[in-house]
Every structure is written in structure tokens, then in C-alpha cells.
């Protein structure tokens, strides 16, 4: 019988290596791919042709971007079987994980349970019914979109849209009839809200999230 193919997404390289070594000692499991952050994970996911995914919830600080990555995986392959790994026990985070399409949720401190969880996921012994998971996932996406829409003010969205279209600060000033000082203040607030360093990054992120 072919071993169960596992894809691991974990930002801590030491923990990732340790878990890979641990799983590869199981005769019926083999790690076929790994990634340390969201973009890398999305790029490597489909080529790995994994049966089960182990996904760390926090790939960068406390952004819960593992949940976002899980949503991307489900969009790429609807039958993905994703197990979320975390040290968090917040009930809301657990709900978000299942809403994103996860079939199980395991604390990293319970790593010895991971091999059996992988086998259960592979055998479709989900912790939540697929229909309920789909409904939860849709609701999570709707709430996430509502949250995103409230992130920026109308003026901030207008500025980012013009930046995304390639307008200079002078052109933005003329188009929106506001001063450069006001534009700069808006941009500073936008950078803090979106957690990026440049206005171009903010505009690209806003476009990706369909904020304008």
C-alpha cells in the first residue's frame, strides 16, 4: 500500500524539520513537501500532490495567515484535507479553522497524536460534516469580506485605488482636491492598518482583497 502523502506548512524551520523526521519514521506516512510561509505554500501545494496537509495557524507573528492559506488551498483543490496545527486554544480561532475548511485541529503540544490524525483525515474521518464545513467556510468568507470593507475609510480607498492605477502624489492631490499633507497622513494610517511598509504594497494588498 502506498504511504499517505503529507504536505507541511510551518514557519519555524527547527520545528518543521523535527516534525518531518518524526512523521517519516512512520511506515505509512511520507512528507512530500514543505513550506514556511503563505506564498511559498501556495506555489508548492498542487505540485506536491499531497493527501493531507498540516497547516500552522500563524505563519507570521499572530496574523492567523495559516487560516487564509487553508482557504486558498480549498480554492485550489476542493477536496483538500487540512489539519490545523497551533499552540492556540482560543475557541474563536478553532471555529475559524473549521470555517476555512480544516478537518481537524491539533495542539503542537499533542504532536504524538498527529500521525493518527493524518490517517483519520486520509480516511475521511472528519471532525465536522463536509456540508457544515462548507456553510461555515462561506460564512467566514462573508464576515472576513465585511471586516475588510470596514478596514479603510472611503478617502483611504480612493487614495489606494489611484496609487494602484499608477497616479503620482501630485495627480492624487489634483484628482481628490486634497493637500499633500492630508495624503501623507492618510497613507501613514493606511500603512499601520494594513501592516505594510509602502503605499504600493498597500495598494496591491487592497486590490487583492477587493477593497476598491
UniProtKB/TrEMBL annotation:
Keywords for the protein's UniProt record, in alphabetical order: DNA-binding, Phosphoprotein, Transcription, Transcription regulation
GO MF terms held by the record: DNA binding
InterPro entries from the UniProt entry: CheY-like_superfamily, NreC/VraR/RcsB-like_REC, Sig_transdc_resp-reg_C-effctor, Sig_transdc_resp-reg_receiver, Tscrpt_reg_LuxR_C, WalR-like
Recorded superkingdom: Bacteria
Domain (HTH luxR-type) ranges: 145-210
CDD domains named in the record: LuxR_C_like, REC_NarL-like
UniProt-listed GO biological process terms: phosphorelay signal transduction system; regulation of DNA-templated transcription
Modified residues (4-aspartylphosphate): 56
Gene3D superfamilies listed in its UniProt record: 3.40.50.2300
Stretches assigned to the Response regulatory domain: 5-123
Chain segments annotated as transmembrane: none
PANTHER family from the UniProt entry: TWO-COMPONENT RESPONSE REGULATOR
Stated name of the protein: Regulator
Organism: Brevibacillus formosus
Amino acid at each position: 500500500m502506498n504511504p499517505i502523502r503529507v504536505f507541511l506548512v510551518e514557519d519555524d524551520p527547527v520545528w518543521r524539520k523535527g516534525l518531518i523526521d518524526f512523521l517519516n519514521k512512520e511506515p505509512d506516512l511520507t512528507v512530500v513537501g514543505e513550506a514556511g510561509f503563505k506564498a511559498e505554500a501556495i506555489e508548492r501545494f498542487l505540485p506536491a500532490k499531497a493527501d493531507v496537509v498540516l497547516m500552522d495557524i500563524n505563519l507570521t507573528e499572530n496574523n492567523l495567515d495559516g487560516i487564509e492559506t487553508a482557504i486558498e488551498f480549498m480554492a485550489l483543490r476542493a477536496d483538500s484535507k487540512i489539519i490545523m496545527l497551533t499552540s492556540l486554544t482560543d475557541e474563536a480561532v478553532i471555529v475559524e479553522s473549521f470555517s476555512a475548511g480544516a478537518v481537524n485541529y491539533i495542539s503542537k503540544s499533542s504532536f504524538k497524536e498527529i500521525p493518527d490524525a493524518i490517517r483519520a483525515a486520509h480516511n475521511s474521518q472528519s471532525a465536522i460534516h463536509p456540508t457544515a464545513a462548507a456553510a461555515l467556510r462561506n460564512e467566514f468568507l462573508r464576515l472576513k469580506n465585511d471586516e475588510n470593507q470596514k478596514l479603510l475609510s472611503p478617502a483611504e480607498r480612493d487614495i489606494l485605488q489611484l496609487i494602484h492605477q499608477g497616479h503620482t502624489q501630485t495627480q492624487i492631490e489634483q484628482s481628490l482636491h486634497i493637500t499633500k499633507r492630508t495624503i501623507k497622513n492618510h497613507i501613514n494610517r493606511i500603512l499601520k492598518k494594513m501592516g505594510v511598509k509602502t503605499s504600493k504594497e498597500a495598494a496591491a494588498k487592497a486590490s487583492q482583497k477587493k477593497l476598491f
